[in-house]
Transcriptional regulator, LacI family
Amino acid sequence: MARSHEPTLADVAERAGVSVTTVSRVLNARGYLSQDAKDRVARAIEDLGYRPNQVARALHGKKTNTIGLIIPTVALPFFGELAVEVENALADGGYRILICNSLGRADREREYLNLLIGNRVDGIISGAHNEGLCEYESIRMPLVTIDRDLSPTIPNVRCDNRGAGRMATEKLLEAGARRPALLTSRSGAHNLREQGYRDALAGTGAEPLVLAVPFDTPSPLRQRRVEEALDSIAGRFDAVFATDDLAAAEVLEWARGRGVDVPSRLKVVGFDGTTAIRRALPALATIRQPLDLIARKAVELLVAQIDGSGPSPGDAGGVPSAVEFPVAFLPGRTL
Amino acid sequence: MARSHEPTLADVAERAGVSVTTVSRVLNARGYLSQDAKDRVARAIEDLGYRPNQVARALHGKKTNTIGLIIPTVALPFFGELAVEVENALADGGYRILICNSLGRADREREYLNLLIGNRVDGIISGAHNEGLCEYESIRMPLVTIDRDLSPTIPNVRCDNRGAGRMATEKLLEAGARRPALLTSRSGAHNLREQGYRDALAGTGAEPLVLAVPFDTPSPLRQRRVEEALDSIAGRFDAVFATDDLAAAEVLEWARGRGVDVPSRLKVVGFDGTTAIRRALPALATIRQPLDLIARKAVELLVAQIDGSGPSPGDAGGVPSAVEFPVAFLPGRTL
DNA sequence: CTGAAAGCGCTAACAG
DNA sequence: CTGTTAGCGCTTTCAG
């Protein structure tokens, strides 16, 4: 392939007739330099089209200016938009991002964790969903999670899931629904949106109807699963709060297939409110997560850890373990 | 932060009572090792929780096993899914991916290009859309583009855009449309989907109606632009071929607002057929790009360049400069 | 103001 | 079979 080497510091030094030290100095604007030296080095860099080797720089400096982001998959608009927001927030601090799609598989997440550590990233933001990855316990590295409780000592940033679940359910009730069902990914005590749904139902006399279809069910299967779930409670609900917008879309498709009119006979509210799904389905009423704020805060907490100006994981005290942001209701024609 | 260093090769060597060479050897399974040595090293690695420093490894080996992917933004499902497909294809070869969102801005793309080169990635796959970035000319590095003609010497992988444009338009005609309009991002000779549209119209007596709204128009504005465009040709069209699904969704929203029934009075066909949008809008008829094949082929061509078993950019001959894959029509209720 | 030299952690000759 | 010894490209004392 006869590719000539990229030029190195030494090449620049030689061409400029100075030492590598001097070149390094002008590159990093450190110490006093004669104008003459600066000029000659600048010219040599220009002539050679020199670009510092960040790999070498990182090896020495013990800082890669890279952080890892672990999420299920950027193929889902929610995580795609989250990734872009994180990237933007990071850019201000001079960091870049290594995006890792765990695809909801624990082995893949573990693999990526090792990759990130091996590559000596300066910190990790984890928004993946695999339970019980003990690896995180032993990670001695700046770490922040998004919408995921790993451990009380690891800062977590998220929207006010419980309040949001309550809000979504209340919107359905206000619109006239009497028996709203919940369609979520996994039911349980850890599911705060479900808690909010139950909160809102308490005192209305309505019985909670919780349907669970894993969010990473392969696509052709998912629609069927959702339809089975809805059919199984047929006649016992007149509204659905789906904990993500794509699931809400599946509910709409079910209704169309069954000839159930929305919103007169069925009201639907989704969750996330991503720009992409909003464009695809502007009719869908939903709860919007403030992704920009969440990303910005997660980055802020992470950078504080990296700079040592914030608590590291394992540290008690200091930053509260969870930061929550309020959500916004986006009206639509589905309720 | 009082974090003691991550353990190094030397630490492992000391603990195992062997030399660093030996440790390096067992790590890379190179040369002959006594079983005893292997065992002791393995134990030491285990005890210390040692993870090889990939940065150092890359510095020496002149290979980072990382490739850069430049795209507009993973916030759009099409590029999000493309990124995941590329990542999967790459994983088989032991490569990882650095995803760069250019956000459609030339400055950002240039910046990322420098970043990738500075980080000494082994190659670049570019699927961004900025015109006239002269930087690419001077890049002496394995490079493949996706759906983008940079130069005849740089391999390009894409779907059969022209055939696909023709197919989409023909589907509209077959469904009974007489005057299909085209809604695209940028009109011009380079727009092969537009060519296909014109091909299909030739001989039908229908006059081409081409509407252009840039795909990266900020979201709230876009819907308005699309509506203005459609209003401007009101009464002169009875179908729309939109060159991406999100644009098609905007057409549907326009129709709903104007009280135009789909598909009886207006037929619509989109483009891309991503899983996410398919889930959100299963009713939309569209043309599906074989993202998996495209990604796999792009990676194959890139890896061939990296391994030196394929032509480098600038090389004439060898691999044809463009590889095209056929698309598939996905039926829906919008036509 | 500038340069020589010692590493950062790892790999690869080149001897034993 | 194993250890010694150079570097990879860059930053950073420490002396001029």
In short: The first strand of chain A starts at residue 66 and ends at 71. Residues 8-10, 20-21, 24-25, 27-28, 30, 52-53, 55-61 of chain A lie near DNA strand D (CB under 10 Å from a C1'). The radius of gyration of chain A is 26 Å. Chain A has a mean pLDDT of 91.
